[in-house]
Amino acid sequence: MTxxxxxxxxxxxAFGLVALVVPQRLSGKVxxxxxxxxxxxxxxxxxxxxxxxxxxFVTDETWISDLGIxxxxxxxxxxxxxxLLTALLWAACTLWADLRGEWRERRQLFFWLALxxxxxxxxxxxxxxxxxxxxxxxxxxxxFFLTGIWGGADRVAATVKLVIYTLVxxxxxxxxxxxxxxxxxxxxxxxxxxxxxxLVDNGLAEGQxxxxxxxxxxxxxxxxxxFPLHGxxxxxxxxxPLPVLALFSAVLSKVAAYGFLKxxxxxxxxxxxxxxxxxxxxxxxxxLYGSVxxxxxxxxxxxxxxxxxxxxxxxxxxxxxxxxxxxxGAILQSVNxxxxxxxxxxxxxxxxxxxxGSEDLREMGxxxxxxxxLAALFLIVALATLAMPGSANxxxxxxxxxxxxxxxxxxxxxxxxxxxxxxxYMLRAFIGSMHDRVGPRASSQEITVLDGVVLVPLVxxxxxxxxxxxxxxxxxxxxxxxxxxxxxxxxxxxxxxxELERLEEExxxxxxxxxxxxxxxxxxxxxxxxxxxxxxxxxxxxGAPAPSPxxxx
Amino acid sequence: xSATTLAWLALALPLAGAIVTALGFRFWRGRAAGxxxxxxxxxxxxxxxxxxxALQGEPAEGRQLVSALWDYAxxxxxxxxxxxxxxxxxxxxxxxxxxxxxxxxxxxxAYMGGDRGxxxxxxxxxxxxxxxxxxxxxxxFLVLIIGWAFVGxxxxxxxxxxxxxxxxxxxxxxxxxxxxxxxxxxxxxxxxLFRGTGTLDFLTTFERAPEVFAxxxxxxVAGCIxxxxxxxxxxxxxxxxxxxxxxxxxxxxxxxxxxxxxxVTAGVYLIARMHPLFELAPTAGTVGAIIGCATxxxxxxxxxxxxxxxRVIAYSTMSQIGYMVMAVSAGAYVAGxxxxxxxxxxxxxLFMAAGSVIAAMAGNQNMDRMGGFRRAMPFTFGCFVIxxxxxxxxxxxxxxxxxxxxxxxxxERGGIFLVLVLVGYVAAFLTAVxxxxxxxxxxxxxxxxxARELEQGHLHHPEHPTNPASGEIEDTEVGFPGPEHHxxxxxxxxxxxxxxxxxxxxxxxxxxxxxxxxxxxxxxxPTFADSIYFEAxxxxxxxxxxxxxxxxxxxLAGIATAWLVWVREPGTPAKVRERLRPAYALFVNKxxxxxxxxxxxxxxxxxxxxxxxxxxxxxxxxxTLVGGTSGIVRAGSAAVRAAQSGFLRFxxxxxxxxxxxxxxxxxxxx
Lengths: 553, 670
Hints:
The structure holds two protein chains of two kinds. The model of chain A is unreliable at 512-553 (pLDDT under 50). Chain A contains 20 helices and two strands. The N and C termini of chain A lie far apart (47 Å). Chain A is globular and about 80 Å long. Chain A has helices spanning 5-21, 24-48, 80-99, 106-125, 129-138, 140-150, 155-188, 196-202, 206-223, 233-239, 242-267, 269-274, 276-294, 300-319, 324-354, 372-385, 392-407, 409-434, 449-467, 470-509; strands spanning 56-64, 69-75.
């Protein structure tokens, strides 16, 4: 069996279209079937995936030849588990939406859900910058309707805010993407193309990278959201219906994190190195601000929302550690965070149903009383969210902090405070809802079998990954190394330039002195994908720390 | 079977017990879950004994076995496997942990019998033992950190076992957060060591450390001090100790198992395990010894002024662990581990006896309300006295030999360590005083109504159970203590568990009688063979006998003082309190550590949070930063209304506008 990624990509939408025409009560089942088939197909792709073979299952068709846009899809170690995460969570959340909740206009709801899955999968699978941007922007459309039509109180204001924030980001990204294609073509004399490997190979002149980098970063940071671009988050999270929110928080934010590793680092390596400290600061600020807010707010949804800001802060720091450990941690943590936050929101739905509809911790409490299974499941999710050692989340955070530590100890030490704060806010949420005095309107009830069908498999996946995180790590190694090659070259060059400046200064001090030849340096363009180009530094041997950016070689 | 296979089995059995008891929570009837959990623990202990003999069968230089199951998280140059290290040190810990745990499980089968959360209790308790065994068997830093954090989580779950008590959940979250702080210390410490050695594996780290680190190398000292942060948090050393007294909110078997015999000694184990690194970084070792010494004094003085029976024992635990930390930091490894073993016996025994008294008091832990239980509870009284004599260090009870060995061997280091030993002797006197203060106030004197009731064969059960800490009225459903209480006098299994520990508390010291037996020395030799202190520290005969005599005298003097103050002249405490008011205030307020941490950390964090929520979030994020988001929303809505056909057209228009702008820009560029 060969894997056709087009099938994977369009399957959800196809079923979503069918859902539009079947009777209302069947629409959920049809969409669910589509999501389950997609999941099965994604698992099939996983079983055929070869960790050492680079980009796989490639579909490559010319789409708009004049503009150099090609319909190219592929799976590598970077997106493999995110695709699986998407398929899994969409199946779970579609099931959840189908089982629970009295929706009006069910057909439309499930159609938008299905379209959203296709959009996310498209953004993850795209190997062409234009296709990526297209799908990335397409993601907004279904969520706009899902929030605007089925949202809670104040949904209109929240939707407008969400759209404006992300639209500004998307437009910046669109401009930046077009500019990247055109500039690369102008500079290298090659025909216009948006195909990613070609763009990486040809490279973008250093001077142009910086503003383009900032445009992409703005788009991704808004989507995550990262401090201080999270202004849409509190209202947006409050307004979204919970199954939609679970998907938004668990998956969409990860597309942004993925975008940094897949697009930003390889295409704009010099800018990534130049802005490394800025991005680390953004990550750090997100961690601290998100954590502080999460242990202050009393709305349990927003606790999860702010905790996501903090967790995404860790991921940003991992990416911009610009080394293998950080990147591995960032990818693993993206998957982990998606895996824990979706069941956490599901638990919020169950808790709120048992607290008279309130989502305020002050009105909850004591729910574990008659619901030991629910309490146990929520406890596992909460402990995984706070990155309890023994969970895959801990492994992710361990690698992220190790990567940051290898770049800069100070950042790692301050970021580690986020680990302690996570314990505070997650336990506070757990105790506030499950333990202590029984809340005024709380009625403790065990979860039903149907709820269990959604929640238990997700918890089982969390436990399985906790037992064997190597499964994900070893499949990501190769792609992560490849995507880090250009930044390594850039780091090397910065180091050489600094060395040169130092030598020149010494030479001047000695009185003129002979011009020091540039050590056999890298050309201004970034390096290519593997095989490693000759000017790239030798791969770092196992056991040795990755080169610290801007440090001495 | 090989030693490693048996060690894996000893690890697997408690985990299996935890899972089986948890999954069967609807099916267990009566005390079945308790017996399943206890059986798992006795099986685990049997495996530990088997592993001990298998290891002794190996030649001495081959007694360091590593066994790995699978690559756990090995990428980016890390070698993190799921591996265990079986050597004399880990086997010693394994024996103590599984053995004492098995007895405490047996005790809990009856003690917790009336509780509505019975199954949950045994599941947690088994999970705790699994975590602790993982901790002591860990073969690399990653597995160590996992075990380290798991015991913290199990401790949290058991402290807040009565989860409808706000005092218990508050104590739980405090313990968990301080423990996470320790985990972070371990993680960062491991980073420093990894950067130097390029490995996470223990044995490889020890092998490479002397090659890559010079003595007192800055990186190494930083790494070791961060490891100490982890050790201090787990072992309740100053200033990370404030969670331990509060942890007494948990059921008494938990206090005996986790907060006396096993978990809190993990820090001692860690320092002993890392001894090759600490010997390369003597500065870190000295820091550890000083903190241990400070803790033993602060805790002993605090214990003098507390009135909660379990908290006095908790401060005593802190103090005794201070002795151990001081010893292993100073290089007296065997002495520290020896005290760890004997302390596990007599402290678990003291907690069990205290639990029996508390059950007779229907959950009340306040010593002011106790008295005269001697006749009502002769067995409990006997056990308490044996434990107390061992704790006070009266010959020939176990604590006498182990405490003496710590002080004698630490003194051998000379210099500043002599000062530490002096403090150790002062605290030893205080130990005897507060131990017998407990005994005299609880068991002697006029019997309280509860004691009289018990003398007539009734166990006191109040009409309205209340939370002893806050006085709130409770019911006896799940989440609160159950309706029935159990005392040792009425329960054979509790008697068996306590009797065994009492025997061990008496004879445990014979493992290492100075100049006579040295069983622990011999057994642990392969682990510490490379140590620079192992052979070098050996007190002369004269020093040994002076130390023994001094220790015995101090213990007896302490007991005599307690007798004078609390039995002979019952008015004395009030007078002393009056005369030494500042000191009394210091001790009764626990040296104001809670207030200090509250002022320095908790309150600023809360203030920051409410500032962020009320000021920053409202004004900056939703107001100023994006030109007033609400303003934007209004403008956006207006734009939409202008477009009159919803957002899609607006979106397309913006999209096109952007494209046009872009085209113009490119034209201008060209």
